[in-house]
Amino acid sequence: MVNSFKGFLQLLKSEKVDGNLAKSSVLRVVCGNEAADFDSVASALTYAFCSYHKDPNNLVIPIINIPKADLRLRKDVVRTLGKLHITEDLLFFTEDLKRYKTRYNSISAVLVDHNEIEIASKDLISNVVGIIDHHKDENLYLDANPRIVKTTGSCSSLVFDFWRKTIFNSNSAKELAMLLMGAALLDTSNFQYKVEEPDLRALKCYEEILPDLDREEYYTQLKTDKANLDGLSVKDILKKDYKEFIFESADEKLVIGIASVGKPLEWLCNQCGSRSEFQQQCIEAQKEHAVNLFAIMTAWQDGHDFKRQILVMSPLKDQPEKIINAVTNDLKLKDFDQLDAKSFKNEHYYFNAFQQLNVAASRKQVVPLLRDAFHYATGK
Ligand SMILES: [Mn+2]
Protein backbone atom coordinates (compact mmCIF):
# COMPACT_ATOMS: atom_id res chain seq x y z
CA MET A 1 0.00 0.00 0.00
CA VAL A 2 1.35 3.36 -1.02
CA ASN A 3 0.68 6.12 1.45
CA SER A 4 1.59 9.33 -0.23
CA PHE A 5 -0.51 11.09 -2.80
CA LYS A 6 2.37 11.35 -5.23
CA GLY A 7 3.26 7.71 -4.60
CA PHE A 8 -0.28 6.73 -5.52
CA LEU A 9 -0.06 8.50 -8.88
CA GLN A 10 3.35 6.94 -9.50
CA LEU A 11 1.82 3.56 -8.76
CA LEU A 12 -0.94 4.15 -11.29
CA LYS A 13 1.66 5.02 -13.90
CA SER A 14 3.82 1.99 -13.13
CA GLU A 15 4.08 -1.04 -15.36
CA LYS A 16 2.86 -3.29 -12.57
CA VAL A 17 -0.48 -1.58 -12.29
CA ASP A 18 -0.80 -1.11 -15.99
CA GLY A 19 -0.24 -4.84 -16.39
CA ASN A 20 -2.67 -5.78 -13.63
CA LEU A 21 -5.34 -3.50 -14.95
CA ALA A 22 -4.94 -5.05 -18.36
CA LYS A 23 -6.03 -8.42 -16.95
CA SER A 24 -9.45 -7.04 -16.29
CA SER A 25 -11.78 -6.20 -19.12
CA VAL A 26 -13.44 -3.35 -17.28
CA LEU A 27 -11.61 -0.18 -16.37
CA ARG A 28 -12.84 2.22 -13.72
CA VAL A 29 -12.15 5.92 -14.03
CA VAL A 30 -13.21 9.06 -12.21
CA CYS A 31 -13.70 12.06 -14.50
CA GLY A 32 -13.92 15.75 -13.78
CA ASN A 33 -15.73 17.98 -16.25
CA GLU A 34 -14.36 19.19 -19.60
CA ALA A 35 -13.59 22.69 -18.32
CA ALA A 36 -11.04 20.93 -16.08
CA ASP A 37 -11.02 23.74 -13.56
CA PHE A 38 -9.43 23.45 -10.13
CA ASP A 39 -12.62 21.95 -8.68
CA SER A 40 -12.78 19.17 -11.26
CA VAL A 41 -9.11 18.30 -10.96
CA ALA A 42 -9.11 18.32 -7.13
CA SER A 43 -12.33 16.30 -6.96
CA ALA A 44 -11.17 13.61 -9.41
CA LEU A 45 -7.69 13.20 -7.87
CA THR A 46 -9.05 13.02 -4.33
CA TYR A 47 -11.76 10.55 -5.26
CA ALA A 48 -9.25 8.24 -6.95
CA PHE A 49 -6.78 8.38 -4.05
CA CYS A 50 -9.46 7.72 -1.43
CA SER A 51 -10.93 4.80 -3.40
CA TYR A 52 -7.48 3.25 -3.45
CA HIS A 53 -7.02 3.88 0.25
CA LYS A 54 -10.29 2.13 0.99
CA ASP A 55 -9.72 -0.78 -1.38
CA PRO A 56 -6.23 -1.03 -2.95
CA ASN A 57 -7.42 -3.79 -5.26
CA ASN A 58 -10.06 -1.69 -6.85
CA LEU A 59 -8.18 1.02 -8.69
CA VAL A 60 -9.90 4.03 -10.17
CA ILE A 61 -7.95 6.16 -12.63
CA PRO A 62 -8.44 9.94 -12.25
CA ILE A 63 -8.98 11.59 -15.64
CA ILE A 64 -8.49 15.29 -16.32
CA ASN A 65 -10.81 15.70 -19.26
CA ILE A 66 -8.71 17.93 -21.52
CA PRO A 67 -5.77 17.29 -23.86
CA LYS A 68 -2.51 17.15 -21.91
CA ALA A 69 -1.20 20.21 -23.76
CA ASP A 70 -3.99 22.38 -22.34
CA LEU A 71 -3.10 21.86 -18.68
CA ARG A 72 -0.57 24.73 -18.90
CA LEU A 73 -3.46 27.17 -19.50
CA ARG A 74 -4.63 26.51 -15.92
CA LYS A 75 -1.86 28.16 -13.95
CA ASP A 76 -3.70 27.88 -10.62
CA VAL A 77 -3.94 24.09 -11.00
CA VAL A 78 -0.36 23.70 -12.21
CA ARG A 79 1.13 25.71 -9.32
CA THR A 80 -0.76 23.91 -6.55
CA LEU A 81 -0.02 20.48 -8.00
CA GLY A 82 3.60 21.61 -8.26
CA LYS A 83 3.64 22.42 -4.55
CA LEU A 84 2.50 18.84 -3.95
CA HIS A 85 5.31 17.64 -6.27
CA ILE A 86 2.85 16.40 -8.85
CA THR A 87 3.94 16.99 -12.39
CA GLU A 88 2.06 16.62 -15.66
CA ASP A 89 3.61 13.21 -16.40
CA LEU A 90 1.89 11.74 -13.31
CA LEU A 91 -1.58 12.73 -14.51
CA PHE A 92 -4.10 11.20 -16.92
CA PHE A 93 -5.80 13.16 -19.69
CA THR A 94 -8.28 12.74 -22.56
CA GLU A 95 -5.59 11.03 -24.65
CA ASP A 96 -5.25 8.35 -21.95
CA LEU A 97 -9.00 7.77 -21.89
CA LYS A 98 -8.95 7.31 -25.67
CA ARG A 99 -6.02 4.89 -25.39
CA TYR A 100 -7.85 2.87 -22.72
CA LYS A 101 -10.90 2.65 -24.94
CA THR A 102 -8.93 0.50 -27.37
CA ARG A 103 -7.75 -1.81 -24.58
CA TYR A 104 -10.82 -2.45 -22.48
CA ASN A 105 -14.22 -3.83 -23.32
CA SER A 106 -15.85 -1.27 -21.16
CA ILE A 107 -15.02 1.81 -19.13
CA SER A 108 -17.09 2.55 -16.02
CA ALA A 109 -16.96 6.11 -14.78
CA VAL A 110 -17.57 8.02 -11.61
CA LEU A 111 -18.49 11.58 -12.61
CA VAL A 112 -17.38 14.39 -10.34
CA ASP A 113 -18.23 18.07 -10.89
CA HIS A 114 -20.79 17.13 -13.59
CA ASN A 115 -23.65 14.66 -13.71
CA GLU A 116 -24.08 13.87 -17.39
CA ILE A 117 -21.44 12.27 -19.62
CA GLU A 118 -19.98 14.99 -21.81
CA ILE A 119 -20.35 15.02 -25.58
CA ALA A 120 -16.67 14.33 -26.19
CA SER A 121 -16.69 11.33 -23.80
CA LYS A 122 -19.95 9.76 -24.95
CA ASP A 123 -18.18 7.16 -27.10
CA LEU A 124 -15.51 6.47 -24.50
CA ILE A 125 -17.50 5.85 -21.32
CA SER A 126 -19.73 2.78 -21.22
CA ASN A 127 -21.60 3.44 -18.00
CA VAL A 128 -21.77 5.71 -15.00
CA VAL A 129 -21.32 4.03 -11.63
CA GLY A 130 -21.08 7.04 -9.34
CA ILE A 131 -21.79 10.77 -9.21
CA ILE A 132 -20.73 13.56 -6.86
CA ASP A 133 -21.70 16.96 -8.22
CA HIS A 134 -23.06 20.44 -7.53
CA HIS A 135 -24.62 21.29 -10.92
CA LYS A 136 -28.30 21.09 -11.77
CA ASP A 137 -29.35 17.44 -11.51
CA GLU A 138 -30.11 16.03 -14.96
CA ASN A 139 -31.71 13.00 -13.23
CA LEU A 140 -29.70 10.46 -15.17
CA TYR A 141 -27.97 7.24 -14.06
CA LEU A 142 -30.29 6.82 -11.10
CA ASP A 143 -28.59 3.57 -10.03
CA ALA A 144 -25.19 5.22 -9.61
CA ASN A 145 -23.69 4.71 -6.18
CA PRO A 146 -22.77 7.11 -4.71
CA ARG A 147 -25.23 9.48 -6.33
CA ILE A 148 -24.80 12.82 -4.59
CA VAL A 149 -26.00 15.95 -6.38
CA LYS A 150 -26.35 18.94 -4.07
CA THR A 151 -26.06 22.69 -4.31
CA THR A 152 -22.71 23.75 -2.88
CA GLY A 153 -20.23 26.43 -3.80
CA SER A 154 -17.68 23.79 -4.65
CA CYS A 155 -17.99 20.14 -5.65
CA SER A 156 -14.81 19.56 -3.65
CA SER A 157 -16.83 20.06 -0.43
CA LEU A 158 -19.09 17.13 -1.35
CA VAL A 159 -16.09 14.97 -2.24
CA PHE A 160 -14.55 15.85 1.11
CA ASP A 161 -17.77 15.02 2.91
CA PHE A 162 -18.02 11.64 1.18
CA TRP A 163 -14.41 10.66 1.96
CA ARG A 164 -14.02 12.51 5.28
CA LYS A 165 -13.01 9.47 7.32
CA THR A 166 -10.62 8.14 4.70
CA ILE A 167 -8.95 11.54 4.36
CA PHE A 168 -8.48 11.95 8.12
CA ASN A 169 -7.06 8.43 8.33
CA SER A 170 -4.62 8.81 5.45
CA ASN A 171 -1.07 10.08 5.62
CA SER A 172 -1.92 12.50 2.86
CA ALA A 173 -4.60 14.46 4.70
CA LYS A 174 -2.57 17.67 4.43
CA GLU A 175 -2.07 17.36 0.68
CA LEU A 176 -5.69 16.44 0.05
CA ALA A 177 -6.95 19.29 2.23
CA MET A 178 -4.66 21.70 0.38
CA LEU A 179 -6.06 20.55 -2.94
CA LEU A 180 -9.73 20.47 -1.96
CA MET A 181 -9.53 23.74 -0.07
CA GLY A 182 -7.97 25.41 -3.12
CA ALA A 183 -11.04 24.48 -5.15
CA ALA A 184 -13.40 25.79 -2.49
CA LEU A 185 -11.44 29.04 -2.12
CA LEU A 186 -11.74 29.74 -5.84
CA ASP A 187 -15.37 28.63 -6.13
CA THR A 188 -16.58 30.68 -3.15
CA SER A 189 -14.16 33.64 -3.38
CA ASN A 190 -12.59 32.69 -0.06
CA PHE A 191 -15.88 31.54 1.46
CA GLN A 192 -17.67 34.82 0.78
CA TYR A 193 -20.08 33.94 -2.06
CA LYS A 194 -22.17 30.94 -3.01
CA VAL A 195 -21.20 29.30 0.27
CA GLU A 196 -23.42 26.47 1.49
CA GLU A 197 -23.42 24.38 4.63
CA PRO A 198 -21.17 21.58 3.23
CA ASP A 199 -18.57 24.18 2.18
CA LEU A 200 -18.40 25.56 5.72
CA ARG A 201 -18.25 22.10 7.27
CA ALA A 202 -15.37 21.21 4.97
CA LEU A 203 -13.60 24.49 5.77
CA LYS A 204 -13.67 23.68 9.48
CA CYS A 205 -11.91 20.38 8.80
CA TYR A 206 -9.37 21.92 6.41
CA GLU A 207 -8.43 24.41 9.12
CA GLU A 208 -8.05 21.56 11.56
CA ILE A 209 -5.80 19.64 9.15
CA LEU A 210 -3.81 22.71 8.08
CA PRO A 211 -3.63 24.90 11.20
CA ASP A 212 -0.68 26.92 9.90
CA LEU A 213 -1.97 27.67 6.44
CA ASP A 214 -2.52 31.35 5.67
CA ARG A 215 -5.87 31.06 3.93
CA GLU A 216 -5.93 34.62 2.65
CA GLU A 217 -2.48 34.25 1.12
CA TYR A 218 -3.34 30.94 -0.53
CA TYR A 219 -6.54 32.43 -1.95
CA THR A 220 -4.76 35.51 -3.32
CA GLN A 221 -2.17 33.32 -5.01
CA LEU A 222 -4.81 31.07 -6.57
CA LYS A 223 -6.90 34.00 -7.75
CA THR A 224 -3.87 35.69 -9.30
CA ASP A 225 -2.75 32.50 -11.04
CA LYS A 226 -6.22 31.79 -12.36
CA ALA A 227 -6.54 35.28 -13.81
CA ASN A 228 -3.01 35.26 -15.22
CA LEU A 229 -3.27 35.18 -18.99
CA ASP A 230 0.37 36.10 -19.65
CA GLY A 231 1.72 34.38 -22.69
CA LEU A 232 -1.67 33.05 -23.76
CA SER A 233 -3.14 33.80 -27.17
CA VAL A 234 -6.84 34.67 -27.56
CA LYS A 235 -7.28 31.19 -28.96
CA ASP A 236 -5.76 29.74 -25.76
CA ILE A 237 -7.94 31.99 -23.61
CA LEU A 238 -11.07 30.77 -25.39
CA LYS A 239 -9.99 27.18 -24.59
CA LYS A 240 -9.08 27.77 -20.95
CA ASP A 241 -12.59 27.34 -19.54
CA TYR A 242 -14.77 25.87 -22.27
CA LYS A 243 -17.82 23.61 -22.14
CA GLU A 244 -20.18 22.09 -24.69
CA PHE A 245 -23.86 21.23 -24.42
CA ILE A 246 -26.39 19.53 -26.69
CA PHE A 247 -30.00 20.67 -26.74
CA GLU A 248 -32.35 18.22 -28.40
CA SER A 249 -36.03 18.25 -29.17
CA ALA A 250 -38.08 15.83 -31.27
CA ASP A 251 -36.76 17.14 -34.56
CA GLU A 252 -34.08 19.68 -33.79
CA LYS A 253 -30.65 19.58 -32.29
CA LEU A 254 -28.35 22.39 -31.24
CA VAL A 255 -24.75 21.93 -30.19
CA ILE A 256 -23.52 24.89 -28.21
CA GLY A 257 -20.07 25.78 -26.92
CA ILE A 258 -19.46 28.37 -24.22
CA ALA A 259 -16.09 29.85 -23.28
CA SER A 260 -15.87 31.70 -19.96
CA VAL A 261 -13.32 34.50 -19.81
CA GLY A 262 -12.27 36.70 -16.89
CA LYS A 263 -11.73 39.85 -19.01
CA PRO A 264 -14.14 42.09 -20.96
CA LEU A 265 -14.73 41.69 -24.70
CA GLU A 266 -12.93 44.99 -25.33
CA TRP A 267 -9.80 43.51 -23.78
CA LEU A 268 -9.97 40.42 -25.99
CA CYS A 269 -10.47 42.73 -28.94
CA ASN A 270 -7.37 44.72 -28.04
CA GLN A 271 -5.36 41.52 -27.71
CA CYS A 272 -6.33 40.70 -31.28
CA GLY A 273 -5.37 44.13 -32.54
CA SER A 274 -8.66 44.93 -34.22
CA ARG A 275 -12.36 44.23 -34.08
CA SER A 276 -12.37 42.37 -37.35
CA GLU A 277 -9.47 40.16 -36.27
CA PHE A 278 -11.31 39.38 -33.02
CA GLN A 279 -14.46 38.50 -34.94
CA GLN A 280 -12.39 36.27 -37.18
CA GLN A 281 -10.88 34.46 -34.17
CA CYS A 282 -14.33 33.91 -32.70
CA ILE A 283 -15.71 32.47 -35.90
CA GLU A 284 -12.67 30.24 -36.23
CA ALA A 285 -13.28 28.95 -32.69
CA GLN A 286 -16.92 28.25 -33.56
CA LYS A 287 -15.88 26.32 -36.66
CA GLU A 288 -13.05 24.47 -34.95
CA HIS A 289 -15.34 23.22 -32.20
CA ALA A 290 -17.94 22.41 -34.85
CA VAL A 291 -20.74 23.84 -32.73
CA ASN A 292 -23.91 25.44 -34.09
CA LEU A 293 -23.71 28.23 -31.59
CA PHE A 294 -20.62 29.59 -29.90
CA ALA A 295 -20.77 32.02 -27.00
CA ILE A 296 -18.22 33.87 -24.94
CA MET A 297 -19.29 34.80 -21.43
CA THR A 298 -17.07 37.41 -19.83
CA ALA A 299 -17.04 38.29 -16.13
CA TRP A 300 -14.75 40.75 -14.42
CA GLN A 301 -14.45 43.19 -11.57
CA ASP A 302 -14.69 46.81 -12.74
CA GLY A 303 -13.79 48.90 -9.69
CA HIS A 304 -16.60 48.20 -7.22
CA ASP A 305 -18.83 46.62 -9.87
CA PHE A 306 -18.89 43.05 -11.02
CA LYS A 307 -19.77 42.93 -14.71
CA ARG A 308 -20.75 40.38 -17.31
CA GLN A 309 -21.14 40.31 -21.07
CA ILE A 310 -22.18 37.65 -23.50
CA LEU A 311 -21.22 37.37 -27.14
CA VAL A 312 -23.19 34.95 -29.29
CA MET A 313 -22.39 33.79 -32.80
CA SER A 314 -23.93 31.21 -35.04
CA PRO A 315 -24.25 30.30 -38.70
CA LEU A 316 -27.89 29.40 -38.07
CA LYS A 317 -30.51 31.78 -39.28
CA ASP A 318 -33.45 32.32 -36.94
CA GLN A 319 -32.85 30.10 -33.95
CA PRO A 320 -30.15 32.15 -32.17
CA GLU A 321 -32.26 35.30 -32.26
CA LYS A 322 -35.29 33.45 -30.89
CA ILE A 323 -33.26 31.90 -28.09
CA ILE A 324 -31.65 35.20 -27.13
CA ASN A 325 -35.02 36.95 -27.16
CA ALA A 326 -36.39 34.31 -24.81
CA VAL A 327 -33.60 34.82 -22.23
CA THR A 328 -33.34 38.61 -22.53
CA ASN A 329 -35.56 39.30 -19.53
CA ASP A 330 -34.06 36.73 -17.18
CA LEU A 331 -30.50 37.71 -17.97
CA LYS A 332 -31.33 41.41 -18.32
CA LEU A 333 -29.50 41.63 -21.62
CA LYS A 334 -28.74 45.03 -23.09
CA ASP A 335 -27.24 45.58 -26.52
CA PHE A 336 -23.53 46.24 -26.36
CA ASP A 337 -22.46 48.26 -29.36
CA GLN A 338 -18.79 48.80 -28.71
CA LEU A 339 -17.78 45.78 -30.74
CA ASP A 340 -19.86 46.95 -33.66
CA ALA A 341 -21.22 43.42 -33.71
CA LYS A 342 -24.21 44.50 -35.75
CA SER A 343 -22.08 45.42 -38.73
CA PHE A 344 -20.76 41.91 -38.77
CA LYS A 345 -24.11 40.28 -38.46
CA ASN A 346 -25.46 39.43 -41.88
CA GLU A 347 -28.02 37.15 -43.36
CA HIS A 348 -25.58 34.25 -43.14
CA TYR A 349 -24.22 34.75 -39.68
CA TYR A 350 -25.68 35.74 -36.33
CA PHE A 351 -23.21 37.75 -34.29
CA ASN A 352 -24.30 39.82 -31.33
CA ALA A 353 -22.88 41.13 -28.08
CA PHE A 354 -24.76 42.05 -24.91
CA GLN A 355 -24.17 43.41 -21.47
CA GLN A 356 -25.62 40.93 -19.00
CA LEU A 357 -27.02 43.05 -16.20
CA ASN A 358 -28.12 39.99 -14.24
CA VAL A 359 -24.58 39.49 -13.00
CA ALA A 360 -25.55 36.69 -10.61
CA ALA A 361 -26.04 34.28 -13.52
CA SER A 362 -22.87 32.40 -14.43
CA ARG A 363 -22.67 29.69 -17.09
CA LYS A 364 -24.10 27.22 -14.58
CA GLN A 365 -27.34 29.25 -14.48
CA VAL A 366 -27.29 30.48 -18.08
CA VAL A 367 -27.19 27.03 -19.69
CA PRO A 368 -30.50 25.77 -18.22
CA LEU A 369 -32.11 29.08 -19.31
CA LEU A 370 -30.79 28.64 -22.85
CA ARG A 371 -32.06 25.07 -22.87
CA ASP A 372 -35.55 26.17 -21.84
CA ALA A 373 -35.41 28.90 -24.48
CA PHE A 374 -34.42 26.36 -27.12
CA HIS A 375 -37.40 24.16 -26.28
CA TYR A 376 -39.65 27.19 -26.23
CA ALA A 377 -38.27 28.43 -29.58
CA THR A 378 -38.65 25.04 -31.21
CA GLY A 379 -42.18 24.86 -29.88
CA LYS A 380 -41.63 21.79 -27.69
MN1 LIG B 1 -17.43 22.81 -9.84
UniProtKB/TrEMBL annotation:
Family annotation (SUPFAM superfamilies): DHH phosphoesterases
Q: Which Gene3D superfamilies match?
A: DHHA2 domain (3.10.310.20), inorganic pyrophosphatase (n-terminal core) (3.90.1640.10)
Among InterPro entries, the record links this protein to: DDH_dom, DHH_sf, DHHA2, DHHA2_dom_sf
Q: Does the keyword Oxidoreductase apply?
A: no
Q: Where is the DHHA2 domain?
A: 219-374
Question: Which key words tag this protein in UniProt?
Answer: Hydrolase, Manganese, Metal-binding
Q: List the Pfam families.
A: DHH, DHHA2
The record's GO CC annotations read:
cytoplasm
One GO MF term: metal ion binding
Q: Which cofactor does it need?
A: Mn(2+)
Q: Under which name does UniProt file this protein? A: ZYBA0S10-04038g1_1
- Source species, please? Zygosaccharomyces bailii (strain CLIB 213 / ATCC 58445 / CBS 680 / BCRC 21525 / NBRC 1098 / NCYC 1416 / NRRL Y-2227)
- What lineage is this protein's organism placed in? Eukaryota, Fungi, Dikarya, Ascomycota, Saccharomycotina
